[in-house]
Amino acid sequence: GAVVSQHPSRVICKSGTSVKIECRSLDFQATTMFWYRQFPKQSLMLMATSNEGSKATYEQGVEKDKFLINHASLTLSTLTVTSAHPEDSSFYICSARWGSGNTIYFGEGSWLTVV
Amino acid sequence: DAKTTQPPSMDCAEGRAANLPCNHSTISGNEYVYWYRQIHSQGPQYIIHGLKNNETNEMASLIITEDRKSSTLILPHATLRDTAVYYCIVRANNNDMRFGAGTRLTVKP
Fold first, then answer.
1. What sign does the dihedral A29-A34-A39-A45 (CA atoms) show?
2. FRET partner for B45 with CA separation of 20 to 30 A, picked from A25, A51, A108, B88?
3. What is the per-residue pLDDT across A50-69, written as a single tens digit (0 to 9) for each?
């Protein structure tokens, strides 16, 4: 079964509104969570890395004020897309690292459509 | 910059072994080789990883060359459900996971 769960799996929002995507680690405490974006027929692109209790580290070219990441607990990270535009429509995927080791688990992904 | 090189696509007959190559000539001594796959519209699924020894689990085998500059993922008896994009990633502990273009494997009946 899934050890990292995302919600919602699909969301449609109007242009200009904000939408929040949740990422939960189900059976472990995730010290670090990662957020990715994937456009059709492209690979996953890392957006940001978040550590519990601290500010997220964003990749170059990712607007931190547009993609708000909160990692308030060891089992939950949220990505909020603010003032969404149609070009933000994409597949958003989170992953979580267990402890300081090798294992990284991915969520099922969330489809965002901005109309 | 991509740290791994994979063929963009491969075909395999159902029931036969699928051998997916990956070049990682600049791999560092503390970096592991990971394989994930992504079936359409789903999150990546972990397959296997290794440091320098060959590894086998219920899904696949991983063969790493002695110089560690390349590896091969082997799916021993491919099924139609193994059709997916396969990603080879090199990563050290505590580092993030960065994806290249991967190999699109199509298993044909």
1. negative
2. A51
3. 988 888 999 999 999 999 99
- Residues contacting B94, CB < 8 A, separation 6+: A100
Structure-token pair, residue A114: 């901005």
Determine, for residues A49 and B49 on separate chains, whether the beta-carbon distance falls below 8 Å. Answer: no
What string of DSSP letters covers A8-32? -SEEEE-TT--EEEEEEESSS-EEE
Nearest neighbour of A102 by CB, restricted to B32, B99, B100: B32
Indicate which of A26, A41, A44, A111 best probes the interface with B, i.e. most B CBs within 10 Å of its own CB: A44
Both tokens of B83, joined, read 């059709």
Q: Do B43 and A100 touch (CB under 8 A)?
A: no
A110: closest CA of chain B, how far (Å): 9
| pLDDT band with cut points at 50, 70 and 90 for residue A104 | confident
Nearest to A104 among B41, B42, B97 (CB): B97
In order along its 109 residues, chain B shows pLDDT tens digits of: 458 999 999 999 999 999 999 999 999 999 999 999 999 889 999 999 999 999 999 999 999 999 999 999 999 999 999 999 999 999 887 788 899 999 999 999 9
The set of residues, in sequence order, having a beta carbon less than 8 Å from that of B19 and lying 6+ positions away, is B72, B73, B74
The reported pLDDT for the residue numbered B1 is 45
